Amino acid sequence: MANINLKTYYMVIKILGDFVNNKIIDKDFFNENIIDVANEENSQKIYIGRIYYIAKKHNLVSIMAQAMEKLGFESDSDIWKRWLKEKNQLIYKSVLMDVEREAIQDFFEKNNIWYMLLKGMVIRKYYPAPELREMADNDILFDNKYSKEVYEFMTARGYKSDDYNKGYHDEYLKPPAYNFEMHRQLVSSKERPKWYEYYKDVKSILINDANGKNQFYFSDNDFYVYFIVHTYKHFLNSGMGLRTVLDVYLYVSNLQEKLDFDYIEEQLKKLDAYDFEQTFRSIAFKMFDENLEDRKWWDLFDVKEQEMLSYILDAGTYGNLENSVAHKMGYTKGEKKKASDKVKYIFRRLFPSMDTIEEFFPFFYKHKWAIPFLYIYRIGKIPFTRRKKVAGELKEVFKK
C-alpha cells in the first residue's frame, strides 16, 4: 500500500486515542478527513484502504474497526466489508482461545503444575474490551519439570509441535486457529545471559493466585518490568509496532497510582533497559494521552523519540525481515554491509554454532557425531519447506 504518510498515521492514532480514553470521538475531524473527501485522488476508498493497512500491519484491526463503528462509519466498499469480517473472525478466535485455555489451566491444576499467564493475556484486561486486544497466540509459563506431560496432554488434544524441547518454549498449533506458546523459561540463556540470570528463578518473585492453587502471577511492578524487557527484545531483534505502544499506555495509565517507579527504575537499570523504557513510555503518552494536532503532532517528539517512532511505524507488530537480518549481522537498518559479513551470515545460517545447537537441537548437542546429519537436513529441506523465507532473507542480505 503506497503513500502511508504521517497524516494517515495521525488519523489512526487520534481515533484510537479518543476511543481508548473514552472521549467523545471528534466526528467533524473524522468526516473532514475521510467521509467528505471529494477529489478522486484522495477518495474515501483510498483513505479507508490506508487506515486498514495500518490497522492490519500493527494488529489493530479489531479495535480500530470498533472505534470507527462507534463513529457511525458505514461503507459499501469491499475493504470495509472485509475489515468487519476479519474483526468478527478475530473476536471469534479470541473466544475459542479463552475456552481452550481454560481446559489447559484445568490440566495444570489437576496435575499440580504451577503456571503463569503472560503478556497479552494480562494486558488485554485494560483494553475497552478484552477481545479487542489481538493476539496471535497465548503464552503460558509453566514448571519445566513437566515438559513431557504437557507435550503428551497437548498432542492428545490434537496439537502439533515442530519445535518441542527446542529453545526455551514450545509452540503448539491446532486447526482452525489455536496457537499456544508454552514457556519453560522466560528468556533464552544464550541470547540474553543477563536477563536469563535475572529471571532464572522467576517463581521466587511471583504471587500465588487465590483462585487457582497453581496459578501464579507477577506483581503489577514486576509485570511491567518483564513486559518492557520482552518489548526491548523485539525492538532489538526485528522491531515491534503500534499495538505495543498502546499496550504500555493502557497498562501504565490504568495503574499509574499503584506502580512504584523507583522500584521499576532500579530493576530496569539492572537489565540495561531503563533508557529504552523512558523513551518508549514518553512516546506512548505523547501519542495517546495528549490532544494531538495534525500539523504539530510529530513535533511533540524529540529527535530520539522520532527515530524510535519511525522504526516502530515501519516495523509493524512482529517486526520485519530487514530489521531482523540487519540486527543478526550487527548492522543498523539501511547500513551498507561488507561482503565478508554477508558470507559469514550465510555460513552461520546454514551451519549453526554449538551454542545454537545446544539450545535448539539438544539431541544433536548430546550426540555430536550426528551434527553433520543436522546440517544436511537443514540444507536439504530448504527447497521444500522454507523456499520463500530463505529467498526473502537472501534478498535482505544482498540488498545494497
Task: Describe the overall structure.
The protein is α/β, with parallel strands linked by helices and 400 residues long. Among the domains are: 1-75; 331-400, no CATH class. It contains 20 helices and six strands. The chain has helices at residues 6-20, 27-35, 44-57, 61-70, 78-110, 120-123, 147-156, 193-199, 220-237, 242-255, 261-270, 274-288, 303-315, 321-329, 339-350, 354-360, 362-366, 371-380, 382-385, 387-397, and strands spanning 115-117, 138-142, 169-174, 178-183, 207-208, 215-217. The two termini are 23 Å apart. The model is unreliable at 36-41 (pLDDT under 50).
Low-confidence stretches: 36-41
* Global geometry: globular
Head-to-tail CA distance between termini = 23 Å
Biggest beta sheet summary: 6 strands, mixed
Mean pLDDT, to the nearest integer, reads 83
Helix amount: 55-70%
Specify the oligomeric state: single chain
User: Reading side by side through the largest sheet, how are the strands ordered?
Assistant: 3-4-2-1-6-5
